[in-house]
Design brief:
Strand content: 25-35%
Oligomer: single chain
Radius of gyration: 28 Å
Distance between the termini: 54 Å
Strand order of the largest sheet: 11-10-16-7-8-15-12-13
CATH architecture of the largest domain: 3-Layer(aba) Sandwich
Structural class: alpha+beta
Helix content: 25-40%
Number of domains: 5
Length: about 600
């Protein structure tokens, strides 16, 4: 155990975590040069394409006689839960800061998560090979944040490999060895899992007590599921079978379990014949922030969708879902996500990994409804809102919002947050002199954040600002249900809950985006935004008309009018017989989602 080091890399998005991990793999010889490629640990096609890490990824390296277990983590705020799980499995963390950008919002958030776990922090400045790298200024920000000495901060370049061997040596010198557990029992913490068609659920485990061998009979203390260890070993980064997982190490356990719900992240593995007296402290239950309805485009795909979501839940434990039925869309699920990027990635994975085409309803947050009879209820979709006369008051979730920005943009950010009903708290300055950077603290309703707040923030600050948010409490809100009627038919899937004073602007925006995306029909199409029985915004799409007068070549004008009248009557008849229904394409739903 004295020759084992468990550590992870934490940083803000795009600060070079995966590139640094590539250099680690190269220098330690874990991966052959011929198999090497950029962002090797980002194994999902989606991660490679977008250049972001979505899933944590463990890997074992050998260096100077030491076993080094690394976990590469995501940087985006929507995947913070992946980071917290990684931190519980290690003893040290490399805090990576981009020398060209300095400390960002997610750097601070991830640092606090690491400090809560009492991890050893190694501060590192990355991308020092770039011409605009400001080592002095970035070092000052890290010192302000950590209270460390300047000589404790390492500098490196994940791209060129400069300073990376020194960083590996610092991990050996500074990160403590795993604590020796109780050798008489076996306990391992499950921090991730995935499904293999042939071998069942494969769990990623950090062993805290004892040794686990192939053939051992295990029990999962949380779910009570029993299984035999079909195989065990480590990630390199592909699965490498060792037949044994030793105390203090990180590796995989093939359980052979086919029931996906039997293996939960945060559960404890122990032996059936000599069970541990108590579970390891797992993870706090993650609270979804954004809720959206997910329905299959074809009703026959419902069971395939359920199976796909069960599998995604194994590798994405922040996902929550429950069955839901909609009159317009049939059977589907009400899903809870951590943010809009999480929603987007989830939809893309369903499409790519399982070939499913879905319709997603407009995301909303969870509201607390206080009824006149003294009861309270939590609603996650507009369809669940009770009648107005039964509601005493409604409460909505508020968040604490931290924004790091160059001081030139403070005024623009203040204006944006005030527009979105945010409340300013205070400002801290991270650096002084020219180009000084400030940390702004706000409180803001979650409903303001889940649509396009991040995009707007990046736009008004020329891409320099970064943000992080966390749940604060529930507060009183004046919220109404906004319905959308298309061709005289109420479209349930497009209903939203909005603030009363913003309802007109939102209704107009939705109608305009639908006008741009809905295909023209044989009849005039009316799009209306309605609150209660009152129409607050409306748009029209003119009918697509066949030129019935094309065959005429002169003669009296009454011949032309007669044909046009006949066409008009035909269109009225089509509407009357219900053939005027409109099939709304997925693009229209997406346009409303991204309004």
């Amino acid at each position: 155990m004295e020759k084992t080091r468990n550590f992870c890399i934490i940083a803000h998005i795009d600060h070079g975590k995966s590139t640094l991990a590539d250099r680690f793999l190269e220098i330690t010889g874990t991966v052959d040069k011929r198999h090497m490629k950029n962002q090797l640990l980002d194994q999902m096609e989606l991660e490679q394409e977008r250049g972001i890490t979505i899933k944590l990824q463990p890997v074992r390296m050998q260096y100077k006689g030491y076993i080094m277990n690394l976990i590469d983590t995501p940087g985006h705020v929507d995947f913070t839960y992946e980071v917290s799980r990684s931190l519980a499995a290690v003893e040290g963390a490399i805090l990576l800061v981009d020398a060209t950008q300095g400390v960002q919002a997610q750097t601070i958030a991830n640092l606090y998560l690491a400090l809560e776990q009492n991890l050893t922090i190694i501060p590192v400045l990355n991308k020092i090979d770039l011409p605009n790298a400001d080592i002095t200024k970035s070092s000052a920000e890290i010192i302000h944040l950590l209270g460390c000495k300047s000589e404790e901060i390492l500098i490196c370049s994940g791209k060129t490999g400069l300073g990376v061997p020194e960083l590996l040596q610092a991990v050996i010198d500074r990160v403590p060895e795993p604590r020796a557990g109780d050798p008489t029992i076996v306990r391992g913490l499950i921090f991730d899992s995935f499904y293999d068609d042939y071998r069942g659920v494969v769990a990623s485990v950090r062993l805290k007590d004892g040794d686990l061998k192939k053939g051992d009979h295990i029990v999962l203390m949380g779910t009570g599921a029993e299984a035999e260890v079909l195989d065990t070993g480590h990630y390199a980064p592909q699965l490498v079978s060792d037949g044994q997982l030793q105390n203090g190490q990180i590796g995989f356990v093939v359980t052979g379990l086919k029931e996906l719900g039997q293996v939960r992240v945060g559960d404890t593995i122990t032996l059936t014949r000599n069970p541990a007296p108590e579970q390891l402290p797992g993870y706090k239950e993650v609270k979804p922030m954004v809720f959206a309805g997910i329905f299959p485009q074809e009703g026959d795909d419902y069971n395939s969708l359920r199976e796909a979501m069960d599998r995604l839940k194994l590798s994405d434990s922040a996902l929550q879902y429950e069955p839901e039925h909609s009159q317009a869309l049939g059977f589907g699920f009400r899903c809870g996500f951590l943010g809009m990027l999480h929603v987007d990635i989830f939809q893309e994975r369903l499409k790519r990994e399982f070939g499913l085409h879905i319709i997603a309803t407009v995301p909303s947050v969870a509201y607390h409804i206080f009824l006149t009879n003294g009861e309270t209820m939590t609603i996650k979709s507009p369809q669940d809102l009770p009648e107005v006369q039964r509601i005493e008051h409604i409460e909505e979730p508020w968040m604490t919002l931290d924004v790091i920005t160059p001081s030139d943009y403070i005024g623009a950010i203040m204006n944006l947050t005030v527009e979105r009903k945010g409340l300013y708290q205070n400002t801290e300055y991270l650096s002084t002199g020219s180009g000084q950077r400030a940390l702004l603290h706000f409180e803001i309703p979650l409903a303001s954040l889940i649509t396009d707040f991040y995009d707007k923030l990046k736009t008004i600050t020329s891409g320099y600002a970064s943000m992080n948010y966390d749940f604060k409490n529930y507060r009183l809100a004046d919220v109404v249900r906004l319905d959308i009627i298309i061709a005289e038919k109420l479209e349930e899937a497009l209903a939203t809950l909005v603030w009363r004073d913003h309802s007109y602007a939102v209704g107009k925006k939705i109608c305009e985006s639908l006008k741009d995306t809905l295909p023209r029909q044989q009849f005039e199409l009316k799009i209306q935004a309605v609150i209660g029985g009152k129409i607050i915004a409306s748009e029209r799409i003119s009918a697509m008309r066949k030129d019935v007068t094309a065959k005429l070549y002169g003669g009296d004008v009454t011949r032309k009018n007669k044909l046009l009248d006949k066409q008009k009557k035909g269109k009225k008849k089509m509407m009357a017989h219900g053939k005027g229904t409109v099939e709304i394409p997925t693009e229209a739903y997406l346009a409303v989602l991204k309004r």
